[in-house]
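Objective 1b of the project was to move from sequence-level analysis to a structural picture of ligand recognition. The entry below was assembled by the postdoctoral researcher (A.K.) and checked by the PI before modelling. It contains the amino acid sequence of the target and the SMILES of the bound compound, fe (ii) ion.
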Amino acid sequence: MLVFRQLFDPTSSTYTYLLGDSVSGEAVLIDPVFEQVRRDAALISELGLKLLWTLETHVHADHVTGAWLLKNKLGSNIALAAASGASGADRMLADGERVTFGKRSLEVRATPGHTSGCVTFVLDDESVAFTGDCVLIRGSGRTDFQQGDARALYRSVRSRIFSLPETCLLYPAHDYRGLTVTSVCEEKKFNPRLGGEIGEADYAGYMKNLDLPHPKKIDEAVPANLRCGQPGNAADAAAGTSDPAWAPLRFTFSGIWEVEPYWLEENLTAVHVLDVREPDEFTGPLGHIRGATLVPLGELAARAQELPKDKPIVAVCRAGSRSAHATAILGKAGFSEVANLPGGMLRWRGEGRSVEGGAL
Ligand SMILES: N[C@@H](CCC(=O)N[C@@H](CS)C(=O)NCC(=O)O)C(=O)O
Ligand SMILES: [Fe+2]
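Corresponding predicted holo structure:
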């Protein structure tokens, strides 16, 4: 079975696509965003996938790719078009090549126009294509910088994308209105720049008069993306890669830092344990962790400033959900070293860890 996820970066309105083969667990990630690498790595881990490749549809002008950072974190390989002119990739893709993950593969189709190195990735059965900034939903990528060429883009769309089956779903690299997917049939009919009877010269005329401001991050993004996302200096590299060091924490796709119960039991004196259950639960049959401070979740926002700041805080509740929310409340209140105890007291007791009070 195919695993497929569409992920969004709200800052740059970029879509990142995760494709995996559920039998082998092998996966690829198209157009990862530097600032979203932690999220993407968490999802890949939670779905039990192994990231083989990060793929770029082109050298982006509006955000820095997460390719280099993912290679560092997960050992994935970097692939992008040879025509992109980028350095630091493990594989330079040519038109017609295939990138394989498990029993599935993506075909690389050169679709220049937005940039000269733009490609579209077409799934093996031609049911889905990832068009980058070539075809956007009822739009197209701009052609006024980075070797942009309106006539080339028009020809790419007409000969290499609109020639796919009418039902083929098209997933773009961006959408600025929150639209998520389209199809060949729809865009052929309704794309106001490229569809219907619109000819190459009509399209070129349209694009010449778009008059868009340049992307805000273009001066930073293009040089970094020509290095596949490797930061230009050590400070930026550290900012991108620095995970909290006070415990072997795990970041979840839901956005929570978690600490394993075994680590907490071995390091109880290094942290403050914050129990966010109700008082009768704290003194009830599950007991509580030695030294824990009780602040019920409903009182936490108002009482957060009572909590000491000299050590990291581990939040705990019955099953781990109220305490997950507690970590978010503490984050807002300015606490930076905070983690959740997943599974809460139920898992803690289930693993036979020591408690104060409680029934045997
Ligand atoms: N305001 C955005 C600019 C976005 C932009 O220019 N996007 C490019 C893709 S890299 C595009 O082709 N946009 C097409 C359009 O807006 O019609 C930013 O500052 O990043
Ligand atoms: Fe772009």
